[in-house]
Amino acid sequence: MSDAIDVVAIVGSLRRESYTRRLVEALTGLAAPSLRIEIVPIGALPLYNPDEEPAAPAPWVQFRDRVRRAHAVLWATPEYNRSVPGCLKNALDVGSRPYGQGVWSGKPCAVISASPGAMGAFGANHHLRQCLVFLNMPTLQQPEVYLSGSDKLFDAAGAFVNPSTREFCAKFLTAFEAWIRRNRLSTG
User: Fold this and answer.
1) How many domains does the chain have?
2) CA-to-CA distance for 56 and 130, rounded, in angstroms?
3) Would 53 be classed as within a structural domain?
C-alpha cells in the first residue's frame, strides 16, 4: 500500500530470544496494513566516536539513511540497571550526529518497554523519554506500554497468550498510527 506508514523499530536488546524483540514481532503481526513496522538492527553499530565522523563507518551511514527514510520510530526497550541498554543509547547517539544533521528531529515516535520483572521496565521507558525530548521527537503519551512478566507473554509461536494483552497492544497500535498521522512533519 503506497499510503502505508513506514515505521522503524529500534529494539534495545541484542539477545536472540529477546522478549522485547518478541514484543515488536507480535506488534508487527497485529499492525494494520497501513502501518508497516520493520526492526532495524543496532547490534553492529560501532560505538559512537566523533573522531570517526569525517569518514563515518558504513554501519552508521546505513543506519542513518534507513531512519531518515522512515516516517516514524518505535522504540522498544528492556531495562538494564534502571535505564536503557548501552546498544540503544549508542543508536540514539549515532542517529543524532553529526550535530545539526541528526535523523531523529521531528520524527513521531512511541516507547514501549517489557521486562520479566513487575515494573515492566518503567525506569528504562522514562529514561529513554528524557532523551527523546532533547532529540525533538514528538512522543506518544498514551497509552503507556510497560509490560511486566514478559517471559510469560508469548506462546511458542510468538503470539500473545493473554487476550487482554493482545487487545491492549492493538489499541496501542491504533493510537500510535493516529499519533504519526497527526505529527508527521517533514518526514514525508
Assistant:
1) 1
2) 27
3) yes
Contact 63, 56 (CB under 8 A): no
Instruction: Tell me the backbone φ, ψ of residue 71, rounded to 5 degrees.
Output: -85, -25
CATH code: domain of residue 58 = 3.40.50.360
Sequence letter at residue 28: T
**Is residue 107 included in any domain, yes or no?**
yes
Q: What is the pLDDT along the chain (188 residues), one digit of tens a residue?
A: 458 999 999 999 999 889 999 999 999 999 999 999 999 999 999 999 999 999 999 999 999 999 999 999 999 998 888 889 999 999 999 999 999 999 999 999 999 999 888 777 888 889 999 999 999 999 999 999 998 888 899 999 999 999 999 999 999 999 999 999 999 854 44
pTM for the model: 0.94
The DSSP string of 41-103 is: --TTPPPP-GGGGGG--HHHHHHHHHHHH-SEEEEEE--BTTB--HHHHHHHHHHH-STT--S
**Domain contains 67:** yes
Contact 106, 67 (CB under 8 A): no
Cell numbers 503481526 correspond to: 29
Give the cell for residue 157. 509461536
